[in-house]
């Protein structure tokens, strides 16, 4: 008698409740496997949900009285990324004498919904360069960790090409954008051309930990393709660091932000201690609004970074 026939005969002798329980267990196991397989193949759609926009996001359509202009960046793999440059009112005419923030946004939505960020940072006297990632807005390509790393380097080079000096540029990242900004800052610091600072908000130590928190019932560490391990490169960031996080953040828990902050050096190469700001009651997307004066003062103080005189600025800087 074959093994299958033997099992079938013995199975028929099981009590009814054992047969029902075994069938239920089989259904649950198969369902779990199906969900895990689906998550594996659909994870990038879940991680990068915004997708392409139906219309071109030109600055003229969204300016609304702002000093916006269209800018582009070209990646190493030949993609053209579109973005906006929002110039702060007043200040020097030449870009080399102005200050800029290269802003990397989160995974939801495109640059249209970040106009408030441009306004807030312009009000502090900083120009803002805000690009969409590949696959976002009108940009070609499909997002991935490797792709967003290429995008970050291209955006940095576009910032330099616009005339800004590295030591007058702060790299900012919010949520997923923090996992784009941190490795870029680490690379620049290692190359000897550090930015003026790194400003992070509502971000995590690694996507693996963030996804495990959201889906504790899945084997995330086995399934995840894009791991965005910011903590692994944080010790290479030698510029000034400011990090803010809401205590009521349910998407990226406070402890994941703290874990990243602990991985940064205690102080920058010029001796300025890193800054951690926990904002009581602020959620994932509400740090600027819900953080109120505490966040506004912390951000403003951090951005009062001394910059060199124009004749002291190096002309050759950036990533190879």
From TrEMBL:
Pfam families: Abhydrolase_1
Gene3D superfamilies reported in the protein's UniProt record: alpha/beta hydrolase
Residues passing through the membrane, by range: 24-42
Source domain of life: Bacteria
All residue ranges annotated as the AB hydrolase-1 domain in the record: 100-188
InterPro entries: AB_hydrolase_1, AB_hydrolase_fold
Keywords assigned by UniProt, alphabetized: Membrane, Transmembrane, Transmembrane helix
UniProt protein name: AB hydrolase-1 domain-containing protein
């Amino acid at each position: 008698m074959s093994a299958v026939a033997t099992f079938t005969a013995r199975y028929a002798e099981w009590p009814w409740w054992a047969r029902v329980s075994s069938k239920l267990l089989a259904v649950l196991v198969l369902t779990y496997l199906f969900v895990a397989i689906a998550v594996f193949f659909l994870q990038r759609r879940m991680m990068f949900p915004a997708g392409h926009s139906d219309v071109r996001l030109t600055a003229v359509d969204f300016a609304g009285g702002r000093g916006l202009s269209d800018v582009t960046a070209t990646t190493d793999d030949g993609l053209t990324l579109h973005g906006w440059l929002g110039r702060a009112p007043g200040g020097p005419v030449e870009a080399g004498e102005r200050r800029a923030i290269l802003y990397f946004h989160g995974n939801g939505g495109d640059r249209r919904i970040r106009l408030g960020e441009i306004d807030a940072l312009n009000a502090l006297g900083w120009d803002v360069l805000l690009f969409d990632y590949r696959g976002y807005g009108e940009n070609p390509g499909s997002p991935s960790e490797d792709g967003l790393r290429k995008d970050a380097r291209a955006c940095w080079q576009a910032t330099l090409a616009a005339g800004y000096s590295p030591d007058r540029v702060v790299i900012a990242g919010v949520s997923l954008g923090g996992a784009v900004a941190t490795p870029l800052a680490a690379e620049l610091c290692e190359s000897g051309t550090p930015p003026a600072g790194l400003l992070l908000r509502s971000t995590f130590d690694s996507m693996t930990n963030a996804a495990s928190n959201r889906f504790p019932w899945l084997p995330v560490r086995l399934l995840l393709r894009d791991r965005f391990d910011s903590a692994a490169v944080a010790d290479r960031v030698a510029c000034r660091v400011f990090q803010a996080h809401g205590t009521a953040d349910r998407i990226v828990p406070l402890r994941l932000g703290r874990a990243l902050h602990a991985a940064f050096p205690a102080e920058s190469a010029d001796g300025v201690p890193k800054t951690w700001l926990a904002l009581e009651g602020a959620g994932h997307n509400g740090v600027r609004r819900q953080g109120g004066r505490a966040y506004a003062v912390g951000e403003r103080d951090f951005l009062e970074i001394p910059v060199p005189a124009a004749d002291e600025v190096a002309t050759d800087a950036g990533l190879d």
